[in-house]
Amino acid sequence: MATDNRRAPAGAAVLRGEITVAIRQAVMQELAAVGYGRLSIEGVARRAGVGKTAIYRRWNSKLEMVLEIVSRVAGQSLPLPDTGSLKGDLDVLLRIVARALRHPLASQIIPDLLAEASRNPQIAQTLQEALHANQRDVGILLIGRAVDRGELPAGADPDVAIDLIIGPLYWRLAVARTPIQEDYLRRMVAAIASALGADDAVVAGGST
Fold first, then answer.
1. pTM confidence score
2. 132, 140, 131, 133: which is closest to 89 by C-alpha?
């Protein structure tokens, strides 16, 4: 059997994984600390403990670097275990989202990037694509389970469900920065389930 003795070209850059991870973490920390407008390649390199060339081997510009890293983070799927009921699933999801929005990095980065998106179409498109795809998948899963259980009518809208879940939490935690209590999450679960038509589905199912 022939062996493959090919080698990487002399002088070719080897992108070490631990350096890439350090740069990604530094970008998120810099975004939280100074915002996109003041973020610089120099600042990221200093925080990551690498030279600027290590960054330019991976990304051609500040914008490309931020878009790739933010898209990667925003596109991470949310865990949504099947609790056996719509209200149980809503409770878990609300807690996950609330915890994420309370994170010190997220609470600083998200409002800043959304403000920047109003001035930069590339940032706006990246955020929209990454967040919409991820959130829609979660909504389809959540609503699909509830419909299969007979808790929601077949026409329940997953996009509306996600808006009802994300909107109030984002407003309170990221915009108004108002702490939320345990009772608030319980009331939100009941309100969202009712708004989606859970009460109507239960009544209809009990009358057949």
1. 0.75
2. 140
